[in-house]
Amino acid sequence: MTAVLPADLLAPADAEGPASAVLQPMIERFVNGAAGDGLTLRANRAALDAICVVPRVLRDVSATDSSTVLLGAPCAVPAAVAPMAYQHAFHPDGELAVARAARDAGMPFTVSTFSSVPVEEIAAAGGTTWFQLYWLRDRGVTADLLARAESAGCSALVLTVDTPRMGRRQADLRGSFRLPDGVRAAHFDGSADGLPAAARTGVSAIASQTAGLVDPSLSWRDLEWLRERTRLPLVLKGILDPRDAAAAAGLGADAIVVSNHGGRQLDGAQPAITALPAVAAAVAGRCEVLFDSGIRSGTDILKALALGAGAVLVGRPVLWGLAAAGQAGVHRVLDLFRTELHNAMALAGCPDLAAVAGLATTGGPVPATAAGSVR
C-alpha cells in the first residue's frame, strides 16, 4: 500500500481509513471497538450529528481567535489530547510523536497511566503535559506515580472515575486481545504491569490487567487522600450525572470531563453531549468543564462549546493520524481540528470563544442556562 501523505487528509476522520489499512487487525479492533453492542459508541455520534447550530450574522469575523487557558496553561485551541494507552502499538514513535505534535499545535497532551513511554521522556518533549491516573489497588504505586508526574513537570492530574472495571469489549474478547511484542506499560516493571504472559481464548489481556491493578472501591472519600499527596490541579474524567458534577465541584475539583469513555465502558450509557448542559449548570462555574466522547471535527468542538464546555479532549482521530503517518499524521489531524474550528466560528458569526458560548442550538439538548434549573 502507498504510504498516506498528511496533505491527503482533508478532515480529521480521513485518517481512519489509512490507519485501519496499516494496523494489525487486533489493534484496529481495539482502537475502534466499543463495549457491548456498541450502542453508546453509535449514540455519541448520532447525538452530535443531531445538534444544529443557529449562526449569527453581521458580526465581523475577519479574524477569529480560538485561544484560551486550560487549567492555567495558555492553549491555541480549546482542546487537549485525551489519555490513550500503549501508543507504541500504533507507531514506533508512540507517545513521543503525539506529545510533540500536541506541543506544536498548542494543545495539552495527557499521559496515560498505561503509557508505553515514561512520563519523564514525554514531559521532556516540552509543551503542556497532564497525567492521567487510574486508582490502583497498590497505594504505594499510586503515590509513586503521583510523585513521578509532579517531578516530571506535569501541570494537572486527570483521575479517571468511570472505570471501576473494564467494560466488556466484545471485539477484544472474541479476538483474545493482546499487545504486540515489545509493547509494555512503561510505568510498571514487567512483573507488575498486570499483563498475562500469554493470550487465552475469550480473554482480553487489557481487561485482565485492569481487573488486577485497578481498585473498584474508589469513592469520594479517597479524593482527600489524593489531595494530600499532590499539589497538581485535579480533574475528574468520566462524569455524566449533574449530581456527581456538583459533588466534584463541592469537593474542590479544578475541572471535570463530561465523558462516557468514548462508548468503551457502560454500553447503553447516555451520550455524553446530551449530558453536557445539565452538568455545566450543576457546576455553575465552580470548576472548568471539559468534554469528550465522539469529537471528530471542528464543528463538533463548536457544538460542545455552545452547550457548556470550555474545551474538548480528542481521542481516536489522534491515534488514526499516528498510525497513518506518525508525528506528521498527528500534526495534520490536530491542525485540521483547528482549521475546521476557525471556519465554523467564522460561519457561525463568532470572532472568539465567548461568542461561541453564546450560540443557540436546536435538535439536541438545550443549554441549561436557557432551560432552567437542574433538578
TrEMBL record:
CDD domains: alpha_hydroxyacid_oxid_FMN. Its cofactor is FMN. Glyoxylate binds at Q132, Y134, R169, H261, R264. Pfam families: FMN_dh (PF01070). The keyword Transcription regulation does not apply. Residues 4-366 form the FMN hydroxy acid dehydrogenase domain. The keyword Oxidoreductase applies. The active site is at H261. GO terms for molecular function: FMN binding; oxidoreductase activity, acting on CH-OH group of donors. Keywords: Flavoprotein, FMN, Oxidoreductase. FMN binds at P83, M84, A85, S112, T160, K237, S259, D292, S293, G294, I295, R296, G315, R316. Belongs to the FMN-dependent alpha-hydroxy acid dehydrogenase family. This is 4-hydroxymandelate oxidase. It comes from Actinacidiphila rubida.
